[in-house]
Amino acid sequence: MTVPESPHPASPVHIGLDRAAHERAVEGLLDDARARPDARVLVVHGDRAPLAADGALRWLRPHEVGSEATWAFLGRDGAGVPLLLAATPADAEAPAVAETWGALRAVGGELGSADADAFVAALSLGRWLLEAPFCPACGAVTRVHAAGWARTCQGCGREHFPRTDPAVIVAVTSADRQRLLLGSNAMWAQHNRYSTFAGFVEAGESLESAVEREVHEEAGVRLSELRYGGSQAWPYPRSLMLGFHAVADDEHAARADGDEIVAVRWFTRDEIAEALAGGGDVLLPGTASIAHRLITDWFEGRT
Question: Does residue 29 sit in the same domain as residue 113?
Fold first, then answer.
């Protein structure tokens, strides 16, 4: 498999949320921020957050949030106002009152970039704070510090940080770039749902090797070209999705593994156009996912 140099210009650097990471070591940062009446709080209940009438995130003030939530410092907005997280598990009572709640999977693609970045960061950090209270080395209780971004074990003294698992996701095309290979996952309730191929990077494995292995395991094809297409933090449960475009050596070799992938299918641009418009008999990934972006990049000729 060759990895050619991309013919496309480099994408502009996307800064997104100002995490103000240098402030996390400041003693009392989180308490001081919670005491400010102008602070803005993103409540995350399970994987849902409150939405405003226009579909944007609804940021609350600290006094509007119940005391049972787990808090953290997310960063600052453009005016220097602190941005906070208040997280609770899905099976607990919501820490705030809101008419409309939205899950990241459902609404992430419709949010502005600042809200989307904040939602992903809040959900990723919140899940770690709620689900990893014990040291994975010795089992002792940990103490949260760095304004919610680190833990220290009270038993063995080890320091722990939110875990991120790298995963590859790849859109595979025919040699003439005119058809796109997608697969249907056995776990999906809708058997007409198709997406790009993805999987976690294994220990000691490069990204390129992971792409080659996953596509061959799931779809039976070998790859002759590979180009990086961008990344996306995806907190389901804690992934960093690294997107690629690739070309199949032999499109006739495509076959589903019958275990994880139950069907594979080559799609023409007309078929993808119909599916993107909500027609036809095929469901594609939602707009919040990098899979949707990889598909539309191919469809619109940006690969």
Answer: yes
